[in-house]
Amino acid sequence: MFGRKKERGIPNDRFEEVSYDQHEFQTHHVMKDTETGVLYYMINGNRGIALTPLIDEHGKPLMDKN
Question: What pLDDT shows up at residue 21?
Answer without folding.
Answer: 92
